[in-house]
Design brief:
The chain has 25 helices and 23 strands.
Length: 754
């Protein structure tokens, strides 16, 4: 990969720039105070405006402000008319449209397609402050408000819907968001580079219709359009053959030549060309040039919407073309036009990451919200993002599709400065940093040992089925960061709340000891997701043996530190490939280990994820797909999904009737009874005195909310939706009360192992 211009190359030193706005303006009155008569860029977002780098609208707004542009914010506008989109006037350059830190459908609906009672990214958690498919609706209204202003869409909703995709909520394959939103340009992934370059070029007078060479962008073009005459088109089916495979002809078989199109013998003779001797370097350069000017044509929307095999094939090719070091452009026909997708953006260097996070954020909600509670802000206000990206490749997860597999880390000084900013500037700080993490807790500064290998690699995961021998697993830089951060005056404790990749952690016992001794607040969440290899192989997750190895280390180091601490495992029900027997075995494992899970998660098919492809097509895109390839059975019906979820809460009497029916149907009625070997009792308890021995009556729900109203947590993999960076917390982690989990864990910590 050639080195791109530095993100801040054209930015003058802060002392030479205009002073930063206290908050980016949300009204004409605020613009007047700043002396602005017009905004250069107006960002429309589905979230409440919080001026903090964990929120997309703030990050891109402050980044463009540093580049010298005037940026305004329209937060959660009334989408029923275009009037709310005129509140700041007409932007000079463009509207930037984002649905917010989450896909709007995931934000609004549970895995059972029920509307959520709260929105964590809204003041006072008020629901229904954004529409379904917010990106499309906002773009259409902005176009109505000012028809001649360019529309640029971004955020995770744009990233995951940039091609034809299966939509769980309508249960069909939908078009790319581009033709529906009528946007001029779509930015996907970590879009800082494309955003800055685009803004500079528009400010210089270029027409947005002519800007077609930016990485990390997608746009609509006429059918068959190419950037130049030197470009070639490669059908994706010729690279990764789907469907019926024609037999390979024998090299010894004589095949008659058809010369029917020749006018005479001379014309039919092949043209004689001189042979040019090229050096190895010249051949490699020529091959690379040809590769970079080749576009992969995916099956059209009209084909994939009706053909599951071709959909699975398109999904597989898209994921194989995701490494910015070797990815080619993609194109997919939608009717009489093409959706053209440029290669993914190049990752930011460390000094660029520092520059993004060192911008002058106000580090709080906009004053217009007063004292309103915003759960997402409460969750992250004392936490610090240290990196982005994930090379885990979990098939159900959206992080890789949005942020990429290459880890982008901040420098130690930049992170330590932010710790001090939290200490000095964040209201309510009492000395505890709630997290130093990101998409994962322990991938900070981990990378491939060889840059050339990294640029040519096409693996979907660096850690599955085993950790790649080229992947560095040295945690020493992270250990050093932990030690320096907790040594800062005024810092009493630093907790690690991001999900831990425990198969990496066990490669560094010193890291596990450091974590367990100093950074666990009694509970540590990790996500084995399942126990059965059949399901784990569809998730691209390590076997449960890796969990057992980490658990042994965790308990040993907890004992050595003289602390009583617990692991809180997360599991997913109804994942593609998961059978009733798999869920039963998981329930038996939970009972054996005396786990009573308080919150559980049912698989939600998110756009573009590989597990969603399995759900929709019943094919496994981790391997080549055709009519005879592996069939992935999936729990699709509501009842089966409820049964799978009930297995995770086997101890809850409300689930016993459903589980009894399922166990009898499975021929496992032997698991119904009152003994230790049984999973559930044969009868329902009438009151606490009638409860079977060893079965604890579940705690009563909070006053005013029945058990049926308990909100299901949003999928954890939706971490950090935004236009350009993804670090905000998952909805499942927002506003939850965890101390009660201790009362559900009855197993005593085992003695430490030497």
């Amino acid at each position: 990969m050639s080195s791109p211009p530095n993100l801040f190359a054209s930015v003058p030193k802060r002392s030479s720039r205009a002073p930063a706005a206290p908050f980016l303006p949300m009204s004409h009155a605020e613009m007047d105070k700043l002396g602005w008569d017009q905004c250069d860029v107006i960002v429309v977002t589905g979230d409440a405006y919080i001026d903090h780098p964990s929120f997309g609208m703030a990050l891109i707004g402050r980044l463009l402000e540093a580049q010298g542009y005037r940026v305004g914010i329209i937060s959660q506008p009334d989408w029923h008319s275009a009037e709310a989109f005129r509140v700041l006037g007409k932007p000079r350059l463009y509207f930037g449209i984002t649905a917010g830190n989450m896909d709007s459908m995931i934000n609004r609906y549970t895995a059972d397609r029920k509307i959520r009672s709260e929105d964590a990214y809204t003041a006072n958690a008020e629901p229904n402050k954004r529409p379904d498919r917010a990106l499309t609706v906002y773009a259409q209204r902005a176009r109505e408000a000012y028809p001649d202003v360019p529309i640029v869409v971004g955020s995770i909703e744009a990233s995951l819907r940039r091609i034809a995709h299966f939509d769980y909520w309508s249960d069909k394959v939908r078009r790319s968001v581009l033709p529906d939103s009528k946007a001029d340009l779509l930015l996907f992934g970590n879009a800082e580079r494309a955003l800055v370059a685009l803004t500079h070029r528009l400010a210089a007078g270029e027409n947005i219709k002519d800007i077609r060479d930016l990485r990390g962008t997608a746009f609509m073009v006429p059918l068959g359009w190419l950037p130049g005459d030197d470009w070639t088109v490669q059908a994706s089916a010729g690279v990764d053959v789907p469907g019926r495979v024609d037999p390979i002809p024998s090299p010894y078989q004589e095949i008659p030549q058809d010369r029917s199109c020749a006018t005479d013998e001379k014309a039919a003779e092949p043209e004689v060309k001189p042979i040019k001797i090229m050096s190895r370097e010249e051949r490699l350069a020529a091959a690379k040039e040809k590769h970079n000017k080749t576009v992969m044509r995916l099956p059209s929307y009209e084909v994939v919407k009706d053909d599951p095999i071709m959909y699975a094939h398109a999904s597989r090719v898209l994921h194989l073309e995701s490494n910015p070091g070797n990815a080619r452009a993609l194109v997919q026909a939608h009717g009489e036009r093409d959706v053209w997708i440029n290669p993914p953006p190049l990752p930011l260097a460390m000094d660029e990451m520092d520059g993004v996070y060192d911008l002058p954020y106000a580090r709080g909600p906009h004053p217009s919200y007063g004292n309103a509670r915003i759960p997402a802000w409460e969750m992250i206000r004392f936490s610090i993002n240290i990196m982005r990206g994930c090379f885990g490749g979990c098939t159900f997860c959206s992080i890789t599709e949005h942020e990429g597999r290459i880890i982008q880390s901040r420098s130690e000084p930049s992170i330590l400065r932010e710790v001090e900013h939290v200490r000095d500037k964040t209201r309510g700080f009492t000395g505890t940093i709630s997290d130093l993490g990101g998409p994962t807790a322990n991938m900070y500064r981990l990378s491939c040992k060889d840059k050339k290998i990294e640029e040519t690699c096409r693996r979907l995961s660096c850690v599955y089925p085993t950790i790649c021998t080229n992947m560095g697993t040295d945690h020493s830089k992270l250990i050093s960061l932990y030690r320096k951060a907790r040594a800062i005056p005024g810092i009493k404790k630093i907790q690690i709340s991001s999900g831990l990749r425990y198969d990496l952690a066990v490669r560094s016992p010193e890291y596990v000891k450091e974590l367990v001794t100093h950074h666990v607040g009694g509970l540590l969440k990790i996500a084995p997701e399942h126990t059965e290899q059949n399901t784990l192989s569809k998730m691209m997750k390590p076997g449960i043996g890796a969990y057992d190895e980490f658990k042994a280390m965790f308990e040993r180091f907890s004992k050595e530190a003289g602390k009583k601490q617990y692991l809180i495992p997360y599991f997913i029900a109804a994942h593609p490939g998961c059978t009733d027997e798999d869920m039963l075995n998981l329930a038996l494992w939970l009972k054996k280990n005396n786990f009573k899970l308080d919150q559980v998660q049912t698989f939600t098919p998110t756009p573009m994820a590989m597990a969603t492809t399995m759900y929709h097509t019943r094919k496994n895109p981790l391997h080549k797909v055709d009519a005879d390839s592996e069939v992935v059975e999936t729990a699709r019906s509501g009842k089966i999904r409820r049964v799978h979820k009930a297995f995770l809460r086997y101890y809850d009497p409300e689930n016993w009737p459903l589980l009894r029916e399922a166990l009898v149907k499975m021929g496992r009625g032997d698991l119904i009874g009152y003994g230790e070997k049984h999973l559930i009792p044969p009868t329902q308890p009438k009151d606490e005195r009638a409860m079977p021995a060893g079965v604890e009556r579940p705690r009563a729900p909070a006053q005013g909310k029945g058990r049926a109203e308990r909100p299901e947590p949003a999928p954890r993999q939706r971490k950090g939706e935004r236009v350009s960076v993804s670090v905000a917390p998952p909805l499942s982690a927002v506003g939850k009360v965890r101390p009660s989990i201790l009362s559900t864990i009855k197993a005593k910590p085992k003695a430490g192992r030497k």
